Amino acid sequence: MKKVLLKTEGLSKSFSSGGILQHVLKNIDLELYEGDFTVIMGASGAGKSTLLYALSGMDTPSLGTITSGGEVISDFSQDALAVFRRRRCGFVFQQIYLVDGMSVMDNVLAAGLLVNKDKKALLARARKLFADVGLSEETQRKFPSQISGGEAQRAGIVRALINSPAIVFADEPTGALNSRTGLDVLDTLSRFNEQGQSVVMVTHDMRSARRGSRILYLKDGVILGECNLGKYVHGDKARHEKLSAFLTEMGW
């Protein structure tokens, strides 16, 4: 039986816009499991990113609870949430947010030093991760403005993994990349997932969604359906057909 990493009960999120209350997430019950590559899909405005931000402690729900490791993190203070995010979560965004005044390596080490003060051990882990994503020592010494978008996103994945997070949260990680570099990023995420890393990714892209082992379809703030694809296998035509049929059923 898979270990539950995060659990939500009655998760709801509302915003006030122009004096009108907008219900973005509505009473969501969900469990996220260790080792899964969970993909959240849905039309624009369905609440995908809002759900990801709530699950990762970047935002707090209006109602309901989020539990991790026996702790109700939705009751945490902002300081406690910051510690939770640093120690338990990694983040990969569409916009990569590397600090341009620091080298690529120093961007990663800065994130690591927030949790681990052993710089020697941290440097060894960073070098291994950079090798895993195929970024050379020369690239590590460059500033973000001197590298390509694909290289920057792979560096962003290293930064997300530096503190050995329980879950990596990825919000449209290929959205700003061309097809080739986007594929490199997807290959990198898939490879780490094969090694046991749990991933939760928001996407509207069919090619990206095929990497998931579990697809959640969000519509109007509720989970309308779920499709289990199993571990990703390159070139699996049946996988593509199963996902296509599911998305058609969901009205995608």
Describe, in plain words, how this protein is organized in 3D:
This protein is an alpha/beta fold and about 250 residues long. The protein has one domain (about 35-60, about 70-250): 3-Layer(aba) Sandwich (Rossmann fold), CATH 3.40.50.300. About 40% of the residues lie in helices and about 25% in strands. The protein is built from nine helices and ten strands. The chain has helices at about 50-55, 80-90, 105-115, 120-135, 135-140, 150-160, 180-195, 205-210, 235-250, and strands at about 5-15, 20-35, 35-40, 65-70, 70, 90-95, 165-170, 200, 215-220, 220-230. The strands form two sheets. The protein has a six-stranded mixed β-sheet, with helices on both faces. It has a four-stranded antiparallel β-sheet with strand order 2-1-4-5, with helices on one face. Strand 7 (about 165-170), helix 7 (about 180-195) and strand 8 form a beta-alpha-beta unit. Helix 3 (about 105-115) crosses helix 4 (about 120-135) and helix 4 (about 120-135) packs across helix 6 (about 150-160). The longest helix has 16 residues, at about 180-195. It is globular, with a radius of gyration of 18 Å. The chain starts with a strand and ends with a helix. The model has no long low-confidence stretch (mean pLDDT about 95).
